[in-house]
Amino acid sequence: MRYLSAMSMLVCLLLFSGSAQAFENGASNTPDSRTQQVSPGQFKESYEGIGLTEDTKIYLTLTSRYRLRTNDYADDQDFYQYLRVHTDAVKLGDGTVRFAAFARFADDIDGDHKKSWGDNYYYYHRDALDTQLGYDDWAPRLYNGYAQFDGVIKNTVLNVGRFYLSHQNTFQLDGADASVKLGEMVEVYAFGGKPVSYYYDVDDDTLFGGGINVKVMEQTKVGAEYVRLDVTDIDDDYTKFRLDQAIPNGNLVLAYTLLNDAATVNAEGTYEIVSTGTILTLKYEGLTDEVDYENSYVVNPLTNTLLAESKYSKYEAGVYQAFLKNFAAGLTYETKAVSGTENFDNRDYSRIKGKFDIYGLPSENTYVSFSVDYWDVKNTPDSDDNERLQYGVQVSQKVGRTMDVWAGTSFSRYEYDYINDRRKDSVRSYYIGGQYQPTKILSLMADLSMEDTEFYDDVDTSLDKNYTAELWANIIF
């Protein structure tokens, strides 16, 4: 039973993880958002290290990535080089200091000269990399580069450089962040600097704020955070409150977010029935005020939450069960009710998600996962009907001690045709890949995928098939 409980909790976290975000439309990715930054996927982080001193090592991960995209009209070849660096903590005064950095360089092997709309449909492959290369050779990016001073100032952790805040918000910042412990129960923090963007001029933009975390009782924590966003065309006050409460076999979270005069309320709960290893989850999200277009500035990484949106309430309930040692199943129901003006991104719907996983069958180290996602969504002028069914399967297998292979297929709900301002249906992807690690310091990975889409049917059906091949080499020191 202990095995079932541990496995069910682990898979539940994978299936239901991710706290609800205030202002739901803000969850959509912009080119600057953290989830769009490529990392070496399944490659291991560096773990051996190179000795700097008797007690200190530096750890390096050098990753090369080649990507080929092709269809009946054109090819596109890109090359990316990533470097991750971090050190052990080094003694400094009464505390320690450690350093970390993550950088990227890239190039388009083909280039995009004379490849445009009227030539050979190369526009399908044009992306942010091509745009950046137009004014910046090798498209450099520094995702993070900072020093962390822990205890150098008594009871204080200080980050200086480029980093992600790790408090209630995850803004990327060029600046400083200091956390100070005031005894065992209270921590205060403050941060400030400039926002980071790889695409837009943020020279005049600033961000600063702070917060407090209090351990009220052994199982109860409360926190509050204020952020002042002073970015182009927008000055915003962004305040968050959060309560974390541990309960027997579970936990509860309550949060309140206030963006100027628009607010959201979030509530989440997780509970395990220990006797059966059953995981139950409940979520609620409500936007209590209208967010108008005057607050909309989508492209800025700090303010992608500021989309125009009507008041709504969203509810979700889920159950997850592991059984017979090799099997696990999950089911969630979600519904949203909009009380104001609706559009494609903010309208009533009901949704059912299902997942069935098989571990260790038919052979050891085999993982098979089936998923289904059914949507019943209210019609809008730019959607054809109100029912969508997504489904997919993923299979992975470890081969010996040095190789992993995988294959699968997934179905996407919509693609957006920005020319005609319409959403189109039926986008299915197929993929197959493998990773080989012959030594501790070297990993190789290949991944092939095909997208079968109806997106270009009204232009040319031969564009339905689009292929992508990726090759990765990871050197770990």
From TrEMBL:
The residue range of the signal peptide is 1-22
State the UniProt keywords alphabetically: Signal
Q: What is this protein called?
A: Alginate export domain-containing protein
The species this protein was found in: Geovibrio thiophilus
